[in-house]
Amino acid sequence: MSQPYILSKSQYIRGLQCLKSLWLYRHHPELMTKTSPSLQRIFDQGHAVGGLARERFPGGVLITADHRHIKEALEETRMALDSGATTIYEAAFVAADTLVRPDILIAGKRGSWNLYEVKSSGEVKDVYVQDAAVQRHVLEESGLNVAAVCIVYINNRYLRKGPLDLAKLFTIADVSEETRHLKHEIKAKLAELAEIAKSTTPPSTAIGPWCKAQHKCGFYEHCWKDIQDTSIHHIKHLSWDKIGQLQERGISEISAIPEDFPLSPQQALQRLAEKDHRTLVNKSEIQKHIKRLKYPLHYLDFETISPAIPPFDDCRPMEQLPFQASLHIQDTPGSSLRHLEYLGSATEDPRPRLVDFLVKNIASSGSVIAYSKDFEGMCLKVLAEHFPSASTPLLSIKQRLWDSAESFSRAHYVHPGFKGRWSIKKVLPVLVPDMTYAGLAVANGEDAQAAYLQLMSGKLDPEEAERLKANLKEYCGQDTLAMVRLVEILSRAVEEGS
């Protein structure tokens, strides 16, 4: 059975980001990176938000045929319209060789229809307007009179108290005028993208900022596979304009960048480290930083989720909600480390017990060490707002934060192995080779979020749940132990040769 369309709405949006991405999707989908747990979590969250949005506009007819049964979906939609349905979810329309499936259609006055596009986001992005505009175009080409087009998105200021208040959870933005003005642009773009989709040869699109413009493209790994770590593409924050200037001069390697080429101080240090294959240490700056440490030392790391739908009272949509903490504590210089940890039960709000854990185990004096402290600081601030009875000790902890990433982020310690990056996942394996995240079942923050959301689902058998809990504890504990090792390395770097 032939497909009754050339493009879908999602393919149109893909083509706006990158023509080559659209072509690869149509001709070589096997090259797309496998959906990661974190990306699947985003998809699942989108489906959950879409379901709640239907409750916000109740009483509709759901078109049940999925993307594998488009002709059936078109027929279901026709039957719903003929039967006089006034609200339709996931309707299917094909016109201008393009398939769209509006989230919600609601009948308006005098035979018109209002289109509602649902997004699990806290803002209206330009791409959402494009998304809604192409849907409007196809609906109008199908013969529908579209009176209004709206984006339904999350009100991230909503504070949950009791059952979800859907009228407060969602914000509705009218983008009717914006979508109307895009009509002619969309018509021309659809024709261009249809030709790309049908072509047997790929467009000559080079890698560029579009690879991560709206989100990281699913073909990123394929298109970047020949870009080595020593490439100019990995100079920290080097603009695409400057990359182009270097390429025009035939320069592709960091070590080959001329001395007179304009770089920021940090970029110049990265070039020097790469060119000379040596570690660059600014002892005076690191020493200033190390001297700010006060015992007892508390190495702190949080793991968080940020669900669009607040799961507990006193939560806001997309607010960072800490569910886990690891603490390594050293009371005095040279004393042994103590390790303490907290992991929420996943059956109740994890924050009250987490606050108790922090207040009980972090002394009222001494440094609190985090890696990129702004994140932990933000978490502590939000916890203090939601738990005012503990705000004084929580804010004291925040005020005493010491950033163990600072020497790396400010290029006071530059190693060619960092490749211009300074996340703990990049720094640790270079400086402490026997500590790696590569073999961990939970190897990064996104994995941790996905694991905890699985626990929250209540769908795991007890053995699997215990395994996930152990994996979470191992990962979070490694983060704080990693900071211990990095601070030791920074301290030794200052002492050597002094």
Please characterize this protein's 3D structure.
The chain is α/β, with parallel strands linked by helices and 498 residues long. Helices cover 44% and strands 15% of the residues. It contains 19 helices and 16 strands. It has a six-stranded mixed sheet with strand order 2-3-6-7-8-9. A five-stranded mixed sheet has the order 13-12-11-14-15, with helices on both faces. A three-stranded mixed sheet has the order 1-5-4. Strand 4 and strand 5 form a beta hairpin. Helix 12 packs across helix 19 (462-495) and helix 18 runs antiparallel to helix 19 (462-495). It is globular and about 80 Å long.
Main traits of this protein?
alpha/beta, 5-stranded mixed beta sheet
What's the gist of this structure?
The chain is an alpha/beta fold.
The value of Rg in angstroms is 27 Å
Principal-axis shape: globular
Q: Give helix % range.
A: 40-55%
Sheet having the most strands: 6 strands, mixed
End-to-end separation in angstroms reads 77 Å
Query: What kind of oligomer do you see?
Result: single chain
Report strand order across the widest sheet. Answer: 2-3-6-7-8-9
* Low confidence ranges: none
Instruction: State mean pLDDT (0 to 100 scale).
Output: 95
Separate helix tally: 19
Total strands: 16
The secondary-structure class comes to alpha/beta
Strand proportion, as a percent range, falls in: 5-15%
